[in-house]
Fold Conserved protein.
Amino acid sequence: MDDIDEQEMRHQLIGLKEEHRDLDTAITALEALTYPDHLQIKRLKKKKLELRDKILRIEDELFPDIIA
């Protein structure tokens, strides 16, 4: 992996982590409503899990576990 690819991946990782945090905030706000939209919360949680998987894949590529 060259430096440009690594920089792009790091930039993408930052964006994904920010989106993940934003979803967490949105889910918390929806759950606090008197009559929360459970379907919407479920969709946001699913999206959040998908983002987590993408984040983990990028982190694994950027920071591989090296077994000595």
Observations:
- The CA atoms of residues 13 and 55 lie 6 Å apart.
- Residues 3-60 form one domain.
- The radius of gyration is 16 Å.
- Helices lie at 3-31, 38-62.
